[in-house]
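Side project, low priority. Logging it here so it doesn't get lost.
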Amino acid sequence: MRTIGQHRDEVAALLAPALAQRGAETVAIDTLADGVGAGRGHRVLAAAVTAPVPLPVFDNSQMDGFAVRAAESGRSVRVVDPIPAGAVPVPLAPGTAAPIMTGARIPEGADAVVPVEETAPGAFPAALALAELTVPDGTTTGTFVRTVGSDVRRGAELAPAGAPVTPALLGTLAAAGIDVVDVVRSVRVLVVSTGSELADGGDRGDGHGGSGATIRDANGVALRAALAEVGAAARTVRLTDDVDAFLPALEDAVGEWADLVLTTGGISAGAYEVVRQTLEPLGLAVTPVAMQPGGPQALGRLPLAGRRVPVVAFPGNPVSALVSFEVFLRPVLAAVVGAPDRVAQELPAAESATSPVGKHQVRRGTVVDGRVHFVGGPSSHLLGHLAAATHLVHVPVGTDTVEPGDPLTVWSLR
């Protein structure tokens, strides 16, 4: 039986070639900002981006104040027409000062700004009534002036290839007049929920209003949302336990689209384990892991739809599937797109619990006043308890009992 670390390394090695071979796509920065389409904002640049213009593109005022000549420091000068932001000002004549707003272009002839707070009125619009202004002693060239290129030089690299697309980077691109950018294509994951017991869309899962199936598919929607958090595009499909129909349906869904197939269910030791029965002969390696929940695991690079596609197989119980995602797949995908990893802490337990000594147990929990409280039991079907939890609580291999005060590693989920 593998350890968690061993299996996580195997998942990372399996996915590395497919993740490295993704191409680029050109996307509008407005689309990236809105999070429209695959990725939900977690994207990385496919190529370095350079500035086509300097930033700022013209000298502008850092303050609301008066544009002046530093050489006239200590002198009284006449106040002329104001310069609002967005205006193209006339040159500033010697012996004059122009009221200027933050971000407005510095007029030709001016080289400094006197903040309005240094005037007797102290603020606009009252300061607009001034007829004269005494330029403060010690005013020097460049005072409160944002000069051309002081943020970014023309031709400078705004971000290298592989850099995550952040709000600040998108703002910089927009300021530089860049409308589209090349980003690495999102990882495309086909999520396959298996089991003839899964209800169709119109079935409430109670035997009424549909096929009579007794379980709704929680895994498809939950894993699709989890994948979006780490920048992956996901499609979902439900397949039955019909061994003869499974492989053709799977290959049809994979097509040329999927970089990765993620299955749930069908890999245990039961009589109707369709994933194991169908894909093990193609090279799927069933590799149990010393973890609870999520012990049954499988993976492999399989011939599907005319090419070799990595397949990662999780158990079918919804908590097992989501815990498996958090432990094995999320860290790999998050690292690729620069998404944040789960924040881990070591905190004392608030209550006692038991754990199978030979397995790493992952429990649901909350943290209150710096102490870890368990939410529900360890069973893999308690999805409502996972939804109520704020943390995953790790009880390591070799531990059979947790007592109040014992240190536990927790991962923050929200």
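Brief comment: The two ends are 31 Å apart (CA to CA).
Revisit when time allows.
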